């Protein structure tokens, strides 16, 4: 597939706690930007997480005066999940920045297609599928994902299953750079994803017509970082941030850089 190439604005910055990162520089709002109404930020969590996984990011966005909505992603099927998120977006007056983590990236890819109110998409250690691709297909496109061996399926009685990460393996697989006590809470409160959601084919991607920003987790064991880079390049990302030692739960372990990238997308022209 021929990729469209555009120069991304990528600067180097050192993250002491993360052990180093390649990152876009901090956002800067002009006086003209400050006069414009801020977009509402809609944060969509992925599998094995829930809305509270965005708490650190929400706190930082609130400090900067942004209205934030973090809906509960149903995690039942890609197209039904996207339709639900679209209803949330449609209920909001004014511009929206739509943010997805992990499987939530596939959801926003479908939820925002053709929506003129969505001004930017932000992918946080997330899938950004093309039409016809599934999350499962993309997770195995490059080597490095160890998720499959950690899953504990629960049969639903209709031929499908809910998938959980085993609690004893959760931190190592999903949140290795999150403090142990917090990771244990995340493991206990994780929300399962229905297996068919991971195999459902994506529709026309919103990132083909809406500017996108990507944050890559360099130590991700769910979506290998090579795959994240590939999807960012394919989507012609406006900017890309890579945190080299971040786990898949980068929004929890590194909420500052995540919030900074979201605000950069929110203030972009």
Automatic annotation (TrEMBL):
Q: Which residues form the AB hydrolase-1 domain?
A: 41-260
Q: Please report the organism this UniProt entry assigns to the protein.
A: Micromonospora thermarum
> GO molecular-function annotation terms?
hydrolase activity
- PANTHER family annotated for this entry? AB HYDROLASE-1 DOMAIN-CONTAINING PROTEIN-RELATED (PTHR37017), ESTERASE_LIPASE_THIOESTERASE DOMAIN-CONTAINING PROTEIN (PTHR37017:SF11)
Q: Which UniProt keywords apply?
A: Hydrolase, Signal
Hydrolase keyword on record: yes
Pfam families the UniProt entry points to? Abhydrolase_6
Q: Where is the signal peptide?
A: 1-23
| InterPro entries to which the protein is assigned, alphabetical | AB_hydrolase_1 (IPR000073), AB_hydrolase_fold (IPR029058), Sec-Metab_Biosynth_Hydrolase (IPR052897)
Q: Does the keyword Nucleus apply?
A: no
> What name does UniProt use for this protein?
Alpha/beta hydrolase
């Amino acid at each position: 597939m021929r990729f469209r190439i555009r120069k991304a604005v990528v600067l180097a910055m050192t993250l002491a706690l993360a052990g180093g990162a390649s990152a876009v520089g901090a956002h800067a709002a002009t006086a003209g930007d400050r006069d414009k109404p801020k977009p509402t930020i809609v944060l969509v969590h992925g599998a094995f997480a829930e809305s509270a996984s965005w708490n650190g990011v929400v706190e930082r966005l609130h400090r900067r005066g942004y209205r934030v909505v973090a809906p509960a992603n149903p995690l039942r099927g890609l197209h039904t999940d996207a339709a639900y998120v679209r209803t949330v977006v449609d209920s909001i007056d004014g511009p929206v920045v739509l943010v997805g983590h992990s499987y939530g990236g596939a959801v926003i890819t479908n939820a925002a297609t053709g929506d003129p109110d969505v001004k930017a998409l932000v992918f946080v250690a997330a899938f950004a599928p093309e039409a016809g691709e599934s999350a499962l297909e993309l997770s195995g496109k490059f080597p490095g994902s160890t998720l499959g061996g950690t899953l504990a399926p629960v049969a639903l009685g209709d031929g499908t299953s809910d998938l959980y990460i085993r609690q004893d393996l959760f931190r190592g697989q999903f949140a290795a750079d999150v403090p142990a006590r917090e990771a244990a809470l995340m493991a206990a409160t994780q929300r399962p994803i229905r297996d068919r959601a991971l195999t459902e084919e994506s529709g026309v991607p919103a990132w083909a017509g809406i500017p996108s920003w990507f944050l890559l987790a360099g130590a991700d064991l769910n979506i290998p970082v090579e795959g994240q880079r590939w999807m960012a390049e394919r989507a012609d990302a406006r900017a890309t941030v890579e945190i080299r030692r971040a786990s898949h739960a980068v929004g929890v372990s590194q909420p500052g850089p995540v919030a900074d990238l979201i605000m950069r997308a929110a203030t972009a022209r």
